[in-house]
Design brief:
The chain is α+β, with helices and mostly antiparallel strands and 816 residues long. Helix content is 40%, strand content 21%. Strands 1, 2, 3, 4, 7, 8, 9, 11 and 12 form a nine-stranded mixed sheet that branches. Strands 14, 15, 16, 17, 18, 19, 20 and 21 form an eight-stranded mixed sheet that branches. It has a four-stranded parallel sheet with strand order 22-25-24-23, sandwiched between helices. A hairpin with a 5-residue loop joins strand 7 and strand 8. The longest helix has 25 residues.
Length: 816
């Protein structure tokens, strides 16, 4: 297994197919009808792409990236030929799929009925009946609340065509009535005669329209495909290159039923034939040009370059399987595991649960049947990075590694919180990460307050701290379609709905300046987070402007959940503080075995204040005794109980920084040849607790940091001293501690088991602190600590000689 990222380059023509109408339908149909509807439509598009030799690169919600790649094996598959194939395919798609009527007066048409029967398995009753009933139900449910507008007249349709022409002029397409525009505008109409609706069953109730539409953008040029992620959690295949920006600009210029091509694509297309109109002006101005509108094309290939169906057609599944006939079972299992890293966790989980011996249905049928509507927290995150390829291999490799770091940091935190990565993609919105909570396997009590929002903050902060990347994010919580979208042979798991589109909009720069924005549902679902209200925004799928909010910080942060401050005049608890000081003094002077102090008290009785005061008093006392002391502290929270080793990321980093300070301070002083400013640890000073304890100079923070070396360097040093295998540096250092490793990644087939990780963490803790006379491990709210952290604490207590563990907890009867 090679280390990631892995990249490959190619010259390609790119077709971006953007479908509209799914958002509205998702609010009108039941889940079965909606699933059948979108997959029928996607199959229609995918069939066209496959028939022209294209490949489906990515599903992007309700859009598809399709590619025609230059082939080194077929001389006919040149870049010019690829552009011609993509343009012809796009023209066929808008001709066949524009104004797509889902249901007619007598059900779906013969052509569409044939399509449904060939791509979807039959059910106990007609899909068209299901769809008709769902649409009628939506009409009945919605009519009393908000009467639907009357259908436009033909004259109003013509006025809308004028509006479309005006909108096109904003993209530079209306110069002095070019010859290329003659005949074009006649096709820019909504085609109301072709739009069929279902008549309402009662009185003259307004009809429910059910029309899908499509538009396309074409680009061409150099692209790079990059595999990012790791070998244990998740992987993604990310496409980069100028063609992605080209298709985004071309699609933005198009209206429903249109195909636009970038200036770069037009330059190649004109080598294969002719393009009607003044396309040269568009190329000179850097503007996209229209190639087709519904049933009419404005480009023509030379006779010798007639587009061919089947050129470069990808291998069928059965042919592909023949490549693995010689694989044994272990190799096939390894291959399956590697492939599963690219698949959504919900699908992987369902595949593991289903029988591998007897299957009465295809994987596609089973996944389509598993589609559902669920309340889902959807978060879009946009890292602000320059993602353009430079052509310089060294610079591009840095970009690929940066993308891989973004991916691994995100999945590291997602794995801890048990969320799901939906997608990592470069599309018309830029570099985008999408993750969810609420799907099967990621639904929890208090999910928004305890997991979703804290995780969003954590990912944003980690990308800023570890990579220096600013981020904008948008999040929503609402019912959404969750299931497979696509065709029989090419499909993927998706989450679709108005709330998903809203999350993407909240992430966009138009509404977001490097902050986190959420909708009202996220705000209403928790009282533990403070929100700042912002002006409402208009969003697709919502009739009224949508209120949005910026989450600021959690209630626990406001109330001081971080380690508290000491008080100069602390009243009471003198006997408890003195008792902890006596234990600490004895340990610092005599190096006896480790000790354990436990404070148990109900919430609100001063338990945490006592721990803060006692911890700092002990630190000040040992320091005055001219002894080395290390103090590290942590407060657990409810979410920690579900995350293995949750305690030790903070603890370990604290120790690494303190040991650096001690070591470097000693080295620096020895080089100076002076004892000025140093503590003479060979001559301890006695401390009379009863007389002097109340006169100690107390501080709130004893942790010191250093710039002499990095945490990763110090951690590797400890790994080498303990003879730890490379996988420990990968799992513990990178995944648990979040350290950026500069060592070669491990190629181990599987990570070490939890018991070995447990022992390594305990040994590393003891190694980090062995130079100290006393280590005070202060842990509050340990009733929330996870099981594996408890086991590490126990191992440290049993193996060490200088650790005083000071724990605070609520009584068992109140731990809820």
């Amino acid at each position: 297994t090679k280390s990631l990222p892995l990249s490959g380059r190619r010259e390609s023509a790119l077709l971006f197919v953007d479908i509209s109408g799914f958002t509205k339908l998702s609010t009108m149909l039941d889940v079965d009808s909606f699933s059948n509807c979108i997959n029928t439509y996607f199959q229609k598009v995918i069939n066209q792409v496959g028939s022209y030799g294209g490949d489906i690169l990515k599903f992007a919600g309700d859009a598809i990236f399709c590619e025609w790649r230059v082939s080194s094996h077929e001389s006919v598959q040149t870049l010019e030929q690829c552009v011609l194939q993509a343009a012809t395919c796009g023209a066929d798609i808008v001709a066949l799929c524009s104004d797509f009527n889902l249901v007619g007066d007598s059900g779906i048409s013969r052509q569409r009925a044939s399509l449904v029967s060939s791509t979807l398995r039959s059910s106990t009753h007609s899909w068209s009946d299901d769809l008709r009933a769902s649409l009628q139900k939506a009409d009945i449910d919605d009519a009393p609340q908000s009467p639907r507008p009357r259908r436009p007249s033909l004259e109003e349709g013509r006025r809308m065509s004028l509006d479309d022409r005006r909108r096109l002029s904003e993209h530079g397409q209306n110069r002095e009535r070019r010859p290329s525009d003659i005949g074009h505008n006649e096709q820019r109409r909504p085609s109301f005669k072709r739009r069929v609706s279902i008549e309402a069953p009662f009185n003259n109730r307004p009809a429910v329209e059910s029309t899908l539409n499509v538009k396309c953008g074409i680009g061409v040029g150099h692209m790079a495909g990059v595999h990012v992620g790791d070998n244990t959690s998740r992987r993604e295949f990310v496409m980069l290159g100028d063609p992605i920006d080209q298709v985004a600009a071309a699609e933005a210029a198009a209206s429903h039923g249109e195909v636009f091509a970038s200036p770069e694509a037009i330059a190649y297309l004109t080598k294969m034939g002719s393009v009607r109109g003044d396309w040269k002006s568009n190329v000179n101005d850097g503007l996209p040009t229209r190639l087709a509108v519904r049933g009419e094309r404005f480009f023509y290939a030379k006779e010798e370059y007639t587009p061919c169906r089947g050129i470069g057609l990808p291998c069928e599944g059965e042919k592909l399987l023949r490549h693995f006939d010689d694989f044994d079972s272990s190799e096939l299992n390894w291959l399956k595991r590697m492939i599963s890293l690219y698949v959504h966790p919900v699908v992987v989980s369902e595949e593991h649960e289903s029988s591998s011996h007897v299957k009465h249905e295809t994987d596609y049928d089973r996944n389509v049947a598993a589609a559902e509507l669920r309340n889902v927290y959807t978060c879009f995150i946009s890292p602000k990075i320059d993602y353009n390829l430079t052509g310089d291999e060294e610079k591009d490799q840095k970009l690929f590694h940066r993308l891989n770091d973004i991916m691994t940091i995100t999945t590291r935190h997602l794995d801890r919180a048990q969320g799901h990565l939906r997608q990592f993609i470069l599309d018309d919105k830029g570099v985008v990460l999408i993750f969810t909570f609420g799907l099967r396997g990621s639904t929890f009590p208090n999910m928004i307050a305890q997991r979703a929002i804290p995780l969003t903050f954590t990912i944003v902060q980690s990308l800023q701290d570890e990579l220096g990347i600013k981020v904008s994010a948008g999040a929503t919580f609402e019912k959404a379609y969750c299931g497979v979208v696509g065709g029989v042979n090419r499909h993927e798991f998706a989450v679709l709905g108005p709330a998903v589109n809203l999350a993407a909009r909240l992430m966009s720069p138009k509404h977001n300046s490097d902050v986190i924005l959420v909708d009202k549902n996220v705000r209403l679902l928790t009282s533990q987070i403070f929100f700042r209200p912002l002006p409402a925004v208009k969003a697709k799928g919502y009739a009224d402007p949508v209120p949005i909010f910026q989450p600021m910080k959690t209630t626990s942060d406001q109330q001081g959940s971080k380690w508290g401050h000491t008080k100069k005049k602390f009243v009471g608890r003198a006997s408890e503080i003195k008792q902890s000081m006596h234990v600490a003094k004895e340990m610092a002077l005599n190096s006896i075995t480790s000790k354990f102090l436990f404070v148990s008290a109900p919430s609100g009785t001063g338990k945490s204040s006592l721990m803060v005061q006692a911890t700092e008093t002990v630190r000040a006392m040992v320091k005055k005794m001219k002894k080395r002391v290390i103090v590290t502290r942590y407060i657990s929270n409810e979410g920690d109980s579900r995350i293995p080793f949750s305690l030790f990321r903070s603890i370990f980093k604290d120790l690494l920084r303190q040991i650096k300070h001690d070591d470097e301070g000693s080295v620096a002083s020895s080089r100076e040849g002076s004892t000025k400013g140093r503590i003479n640890f060979e001559r301890p000073v006695d401390f009379e607790i009863d007389k002097e304890w109340d006169n100690l100079s107390l501080q709130s923070n004893s942790t010191k940091s250093s710039i002499m070396s990095t945490d990763a360097t110090r951690f590797r040093f400890i790994c080498e001293e303990l003879n730890a295998p490379p996988e420990f540096a990968e799992v513990v250092g990178k995944r648990l501690l979040g350290l950026k490793s500069t060592a070669a990644p491990s190629t181990a087939s599987k990570p070490p088991d939890l018991d070995k990780i447990l022992n390594f963490i305990a040994d590393a803790f003891i190694r980090c602190t062995k130079h100290a006379d006393l280590v005070l491990l202060a842990l509050d709210d340990v009733h929330w600590m996870d099981e594996m952290s408890w086991k590490v604490v126990q191992a440290i207590f049993e193996r060490s000689e200088n650790v005083l563990t000071f724990c605070g907890s609520r009584p068992p009867s109140t731990n809820h």
